[in-house]
């Protein structure tokens, strides 16, 4: 369900492109540089209409990473950086069958964890992090996964996006983990225009109506992964095509 960090690529067209910072006026009384026009976020009723369509299409969206408890979810998300969910699931099924708690993971040891996850990119670093975070969970949290972003972010290999995924899926918090899909869709649909994942996340916090908060990030991921793709968006089968005014739209 998660994906790699969003590339902050230079978008080819204006509607997808978040606002640029205005350049400083040139010295010496030269003609002032015109400010780039900021991309305007949608009005609340439009945001509500968009999420209403997503909800009608998929009332109970689920993440695609497999896990059996908060700990295995945390490990799966840590392993998923720059990897596909399918690839992670393939590696974690046998791993979680033998190690579904921090204590069992620690007992398994880094070498064996590395063997289980060697099909995943950056597996050496990730195996090291899985062992280190297991040790820290035991040492600081009695073997439980903490429920605050600050505590989660102190765990090895855990950044803001991972913490947001865990808080949302494991503990039902309204958080918006911004991966490459969420970043793209939020900008194309002007739900939360922003140049960085954090700007988009904070924009979503403000824009997403409370009743859609819990599932918003899943809907945006699924929409970006299967319909509003980066290169060839499937606008012909998009449930919000009539609302979308992105210049990336192809209908
Ligand atoms: S119409 Fe196309 S560009 Fe707009 S949200 Fe739908 S798939 Fe994406």
Order of helices and strands: HHHHHHHHHHH
CATH fold-level topology of the largest domain? Endonuclease III, domain 1
**Based on DSSP secondary structure assignment, what is the total number of beta strands?**
0
Q: Report low-confidence residues grouped into runs of 5 or more.
A: 7-33
Unique bound compounds: iron/sulfur cluster
Total domains: 2
Q: What is the first-to-last residue Cα distance?
A: 28 Å
* Large-scale geometry: elongated
Radius of gyration: 20 Å
Arithmetic mean pLDDT = 89
Major sheet description = none
Could you estimate the helical fraction of the residues in percent?
40-55%
- Report the top-level CATH class of the largest domain: Mainly Alpha
β-strand percent reads under 5%
Separate helix tally: 11
What's the CATH superfamily of the largest domain, by name? Hypothetical protein, domain 2
């Amino acid at each position: 369900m998660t994906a790699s960090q969003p590339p902050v690529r230079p978008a080819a067209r204006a509607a997808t492109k978040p606002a640029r910072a205005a350049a400083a006026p040139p010295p010496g009384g030269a003609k002032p540089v015109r400010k780039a026009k900021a991309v305007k976020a949608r009005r609340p009723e439009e945001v509500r209409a968009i999420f209403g369509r997503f909800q009608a299409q998929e009332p109970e969206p689920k993440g695609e990473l497999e896990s059996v408890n908060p700990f295995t979810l945390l490990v799966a998300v840590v392993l998923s950086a720059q990897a596909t969910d399918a690839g992670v699931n393939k590696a974690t099924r046998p791993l979680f069958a033998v190690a579904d708690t921090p204590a069992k993971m620690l007992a398994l040891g880094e070498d064996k964890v590395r063997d289980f996850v060697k099909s995943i990119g950056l597996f050496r670093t990730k195996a090291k992090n899985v062992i280190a975070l297991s040790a820290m969970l035991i040492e600081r949290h009695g073997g439980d996964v903490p429920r605050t972003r600050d505590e989660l972010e102190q765990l090895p290999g855990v950044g803001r996006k991972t913490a947001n995924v865990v808080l949302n899926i494991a503990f039902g918090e309204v958080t918006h983990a911004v991966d490459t899909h969420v970043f793209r869709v939020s900008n194309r649909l002007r739900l939360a225009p922003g140049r960085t994942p954090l700007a988009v996340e904070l924009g979503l916090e403000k824009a997403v109506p409370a009743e859609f908060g819990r599932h918003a990030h899943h809907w945006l991921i699924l929409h970006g992964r299967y319909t509003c793709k980066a290169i060839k968006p499937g606008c012909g089968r998009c449930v919000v095509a009539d609302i979308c005014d992105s210049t990336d739209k192809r209908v």
